[in-house]
Amino acid sequence: MTPDVTKVVAAADYSIVAEFETGERRRFDMRPFLNYPAYSALNEPGVFMRAHVEYGTVVWTEEIDISPDTLYFRGIAC
Fold first, then answer.
1. Lesser CB count within 10 Å: N end or C end of the chain?
2. Could you read off the pLDDT of 42-72 as tens digits, one per residue?
3. Structural domains in the chain, sorted by start
4. Helix count (H) and strand count (E) of the chain?
């Protein structure tokens, strides 16, 4: 089972660094996802920078989130 995200930091280059309950940190590039309709609102830097954690998941709005599995398995350890 993938650990929950406990902290997230969004960067101006549209990447995020997620810290997991294990203490591991992963950097994830969101730029490829911004072309998908579900994530298109994140093209606005002000919206993207609002990334935060709710219930172990990174969210931006009530409609936009990303799975901890995606961040953990596709992110780069940092």
1. N
2. 999 899 999 999 999 999 999 999 999 999 9
3. 5-77 (3.30.2020.10)
4. 2, 7
